[in-house]
Design a protein that fits this description.
- Strands 6-7-5-4-3-2-1-8 form an eight-stranded mixed sheet, with helices on both faces.
- The protein is of the alpha+beta class and 178 residues long.
- It has one domain: Gcn5-related N-acetyltransferase (GNAT) (Aminopeptidase), CATH 3.40.630.
- The radius of gyration is 16 Å and the shape is globular.
- Strand 4, helix 3 and strand 5 form a beta-alpha-beta unit.
- The chain has four helices and eight strands.
- The structure holds coenzyme A (COA).
- The site of coenzyme A has 21 residues, from strand 4, helix 3 and helix 4.
Length: 178
């Protein structure tokens, strides 16, 4: 697949079927939200794209189809953003999410006007930590036994990136704003 086919653009309501497919693609998507039907996918996208929502959702697009999402949920009072992402199963493991997350983190700090980004990932999800570090996030701590998953208490590693932190080296994805 040529690289030009990959880009970032704003999430749209028309992405709902691709969002539904992504949630069905891997059981680990269940923790990203309650999307099991077309109607729930439509409501999920509607919440994110609503003009008064605090979310800044960017679709990762390949060959005109959504394959992933990077979103910054903005806390305007503190100029902070909660940073989160997911990739449909078939598109994982190619470094595309690392590039997408690094691109959106730069945008959020340089253009969206935020001072701090933060995220957390379960310690049994190391791929998410790889993506975060490649996007310039620094590990700040561990929330011990934060979640109860299938009867097991799991730690969550927390990460932050400040506007003043060093920029990571990465291969950015184009951001299409039309
Ligand atoms: C987390 C997620 C977005 C990563 O997507 P991805 O497409 O695999 O990401 P990338 O390919 O850009 O990078 C992942 C890196 O982690 C590495 N990785 C994967 N599993 C790993 C493991 N068990 N241990 C260490 N590294 C691992 C990969 O090898 C890859 O590094 P590489 O490019 O050097 O090979 C994807 O797995 C996902 O959507 N998971 C479900 C939702 C989720 O957990 N979101 C994050 C919530 S905090």
């Amino acid at each position: 697949m040529p690289d030009e086919a990959l880009f970032l653009r704003r999430l749209r309501q028309a992405d709902a079927p691709a969002v539904h497919q992504a949630f069905a693609s891997n059981p680990d998507m269940a923790r990203q939200g309650g999307v099991t039907t077309a109607e729930e996918a439509s409501a999920y996208v509607a919440r994110l794209v609503s003009p008064d929502s605090p979310h800044e959702p960017w679709a990762v697009v390949e060959s005109d189809a959504l394959i992933g999402l990077v979103c910054v949920t903005v806390d305007e009072d503190n100029r902070n953003g909660w940073f989160w992402y997911w990739m449909t199963d078939r598109a994982r493991g190619r470094g595309v999410m690392s590039r997408a997350a690094a691109t959106i983190a730069e945008w959020a700090l340089a253009e969206r006007g935020l001072d701090r980004l933060e995220l957390g990932h379960r310690v049994n999800n190391p791929a998410s930590g790889v993506v975060a570090r490649r996007a310039g996030f620094v590990k700040e701590g561990t929330q011990r036994q934060k979640f109860l998953v299938d009867g097991e208490r799991l730690d969550v590693d927390t990460y932050g990136r400040l506007k003043t932190d060093p920029h990571p080296a990465f291969d950015p994805l184009p951001m299409v704003t039309r």
